[in-house]
Amino acid sequence: MTAADPVADVGALAEPVERVGRGWTSALSLANGAIWVGWYGPLQILLASQAEDFAPGTGMSKETMLAWVTGAGAVVSLVANPLFGALSDRTTARWGRRTPWIVAGSAGGALSLLLLAGAGGVWRMAAGWCLVQLTLNAAFAAITAAVPDRVPRLQRGSVGGWLGAAQILGVVGGTGLATAAGGVGGGYAACAVFTLVGVLPYVLRYQDLRLPASARPAWSWRMFAASFWLSPRRHPDLAWAWLTRFLINLSNALVLLYLLYYLRDRLHYDDPENGVLILTAVNGVTLLATVVVGGVWSDRVGRRKPFVIWSGVLMAVATAVLSGWQTWPGAIVAAAVLGIGFGVFTSVDFALMTDVLPKAMDRGKDLGVINVANALPQVAAPALAAPIVTYLGGYRVLYLVAAVIGLAGALLVGRIRGVE
Fold first, then answer.
1. pLDDT, tens digit, for every residue of 344-377?
2. CA–CA separation, 231 vs 374, rounded Å?
3. Residue 295: in which H helix or E strand, if any?
C-alpha cells in the first residue's frame, strides 16, 4: 500500500468518506483520457478514411459503410461495459477489483488498434473495431467504477470534471494523433501506444482496494444474468437518469457521426480532415473552460439537476445552429457553444449518476448499465442519421432532429426525485 494512496484503509464496499488527492485524480484522469484516445482517433478520422477507401465496388456508400461498422462496434460496447463492470465487482485478485481489468483492457485495446490498422476490407475493419470496443470497454468500466469506490459524494462533481477534461483531451488528442501521424496505419499505431502508456501511472502508483473472497456473492448464472435488469419501478431515479443521458448522448452522436462528410459534402470545406480537427479543438477549449468549474460549483452548492438541465438546453440550441446556419463560421460557433454545455453536463451528470447507484457491491455493473446510455446512441445514431441524410432532408433536418432529442433529454432530468 503506497503512502500516496489516500483511502487505502477503507473497505472495498464501504461508502468513501476521505477526500482523494490531486495525484490520484490526475492519474485516473490520464488513464481515462488514454482510453478515449483509443476510441476517438478511429471515430473522428481513421474509420471514415477507411470507409472511403473500401466503399467503391461494395455497393455501399461511405456513409452507410461507416454507419454499419460503428454500429456493430457499439453493439459490442452495449454488452461489454456492464459485463466487465460486473466481473470487476466480483474480482478478488491481490491487485484489487479494478486494476486487473484496466491493465488487460488497455493492452488488448492497443493490440486491437494495431490489427485494425492492417484491415484490408470492410469485414476485417468491422471485426477490428468490435475488438477495440470489447477490450477498451473492459478498461473503461473499471476506471469509471473506481470513482464511487474511492471518492466521497461531495467531491464527485470535481473529480467528474477532471475526468471529463481528460475525456475531451483524449478526443482532441486522438483526433490530432490520427491526423498528424501521416496515414491510417501510423494513426492507429500512435493511438495504440498512447492508450497503453497512459494507464501506467495509475496502475503502477496507486494500489486498488481488494475485495475479500468472503464478501463475494455465491456464483449463479441465473442470478448473474438477472442482476443486469434494474427495474425502473424499483429504481425510478436511476431509470430517469439513464434516459436523460441516453437522449443527450444520442443528440451528440448525431452531430459527430457525419461531421467529416458534413464539412466535405455540405459546406464544401477545402480540407475537411483538418476542419474536423479545428472544430474538435474549439469544442475542447470551451469544454475545458467549463467542465471542472461546473463540477466544483455543483459540489459546493450541493445540487446537480439545474446544472444538467441548463447544460442540455444550451447543447440543444447549439445543435440547432448547425441546422439553421450551415456555414463554416456557424460550425465554429456551434462547436464552441456545444463545448460549454457539454463541459458542465459531463462532470455534473457523472456525479448525478453515482448519486443514484443502488448498491456498493454492484457499482461497476450498475455504472456499466448506465454507460449503455453512452454506447446505445452509437447504434441508434447511424440508424437514424443515414436515412435522414440520404432521403429525408439532409443535414439540415438531421441537426434539427438532434436538437429536439437533446432538449427532451434536458427537460426529463426534472423527473429525478431523489437528488436535489
1. 888 888 788 777 777 767 777 878 888 778 777 8
2. 19
3. helix 272-301
